[in-house]
Amino acid sequence: MVPLAEAWRSGANSWTTAQRQSFANDLTRPQLIAVTDNVNQSKGDQDPATWLPSRTAYRCTYVRAWVQVKYYYKLKIDSAEKTALNSVLSGC
């Protein structure tokens, strides 16, 4: 869900190795989701300010999960990201 590079920019750079491994392998939150290689390549390390799922019906689910992961791991949300999240969530 939250790419490793995005997590790093959002605060994971101060984590221990164990914390980073826990994040990367977390199956209990919506952190790891099986997607096609095309979707994964399209998303890259972008946050919702620059990438959202093409299926508009899935965007609310995606953004809620994004917020849940960021909150749980105490990762920062930048202003553009926050604007995009609020924009999607206001239509849910």
From TrEMBL:
Recorded GO MF terms: endonuclease activity
Domain of life: Bacteria
Pfam families in UniProt: GmrSD_C (PF07510)
Entry keyword set: Endonuclease, Hydrolase, Nuclease
Transmembrane segments: none
Keyword match Transmembrane: no
Annotated ranges, domain GmrSD restriction endonucleases C-terminal: 2-85
The keyword Membrane is annotated on this UniProt entry: no
Protein name (Swiss-Prot/TrEMBL): HNH endonuclease
Species whose genome carries this gene: Streptomyces beijiangensis
